[in-house]
Amino acid sequence: MKAARLRAAAHQSDLVVGRARVDRRTKRLLDRIEPGEIAIVDHEDIDRVAAEGLVQRQVAAVINASRSTSGRYPNLGPLLLCSAGIPLIDETGPEVMRIAEGERIAIESGRVFRGDGSSREEVARGRVLDLEHVEQVMDAAKKSLSTELERFAENTIEFIRAERDVLLEAARLPDVDIDWHGRHVLVVVRGYDYKDDLAALQPYIREVRPVLVGVDGGADALLDAGLRPDLIIGDMDSVTNRALISGALLVVHAYPDGTAPGLERVRALGLPAIVFEAPGTSEDIAMLLAYERGAELIVAVGTHANLIEFLDKGRRGMASTFLTRLRVGSILVDAKGVSRLYRGRIRRFDMMLLVAATLVTMAIVVALSPALRTEVEAIRLQLVNLWFSIRDALAS
Which residues pair with 89 in a beta bridge? Predict the structure, then answer.
């Protein structure tokens, strides 16, 4: 409500004020920004997942040091923000990133000021994106998508040569203390529609009890759904401390050169972790690990599978994903497919609750109706007389 009032005021006076939350990585900023605050990011081509997070957090405005949409492909982020009525100030330049975390700032006509009183100091200025402009850029980007697709395919073929180890040398996968053999494995990535997918899969999870694997922020998605991850794998840049200390086994995904930025954070928490070097994505490694260790079925939630999703993630190709799906495709199922095919069995406890609720409802109706009470009493007396008659007949 607070953010809505601020946006309404902004519409009337072209002025937005609030505390700044600053981060070059939008997904990191989402973990700490509060309703009514102003997000300052350096995010070229804001993706759909990031925009949805900002809308859900009810931010007062978004300031982007880079271009929110470059026109390379139709990214939905700016469209979602503008449709939600959230002011989006574009291409303000790197100076805006020097604003201190929590500092009071003001936005007016595309200009960004330190302070919100009479002694304001202009820090940066950019373009206020409106819905009409974003729609025009989106339409132009759709027309040029074929060129981007061709470039993407060429990069994929090039990267396959470098990443073929993901397919051919699966024996190098980390050894984690989990019994995978013959079990279902749920791999959760905080991607498109992951919340809806997890909600639809609750009966499946409750009855089948799969191994729960969170890929970075996917671990928090599991916790938010009331589930505890068995394994967390990723570079640990978007997972919260709450998830890291949940008791899950940790696999830190390192770059091919051996550097693992997330390892320092894990060690600072005093947690044990396995470090694994691989050129692919963390979700690819999670699927390969489950496959190679004998999983019966892999169910994917929020994973990336189409061109727009890969471009949103900044991937220039999909070599590792292509190779991974070639290898594990026989047991890989998308969450939406499971939610359509799977129907939970009616449990005895659920049936008992239904019967009890029906009886309570009937009792309330009878108690409130004199005519029904008389009818029920008559039936009771008839049953009593019938019982005495049967008893007397058996006694004789």
Answer: 63, 128
User: Residue range 37-46: average pLDDT?
Assistant: 93
**For 137-173, how does the pLDDT look when each residue is reduced to its tens digit (9 = 90+)?**
888 887 777 777 777 777 677 666 666 665 555 557 7
The pTM for the full model equals 0.62
> What six digits make up the tokens of 329?
């495709």
Question: 133 CB contacts (<8 Å, ≥6 apart)?
Answer: none
Structure tokens that stand for 288 in this block: 């390969």
Relative to beta strand 231-234, strand 249-254 is: parallel
DSSP secondary structure string for all residues of 293-355: TT-SEEEEES---SHHHHHHTT-S--HHHHHHHHHHGGGEEEHHHHHHH--PPPPHHHHHHHH
8, pLDDT greater than 60:
no
**Which token pair is 250?**
């940790």
Contact partners, residue 211, CB within 8 Å, separation at least 6:
178, 180, 183, 184, 185, 186, 230, 231, 290, 295
Identity of residue 391: R
Residue whose C-alpha is closest to residue 214's, from 249, 256, 181, 183: 249
Closest CA to 317 of 154, 74, 192, 166: 154
**Quick one: pLDDT at residue 172?**
73
> For residues 88 and 82, what is the distance between their CA atoms, to the nearest angstrom?
7
DSSP-derived secondary structure letter, 81: H
Assigned token pair, 77:
């982020």
Angle, CA 372 vertex, CA 366 and CA 375 arms, to 5°: 130
Residue 88 has pLDDT above 80, yes or no: yes
Phi, psi at residue 41, to the nearest 5°?
Answer: -130, 170
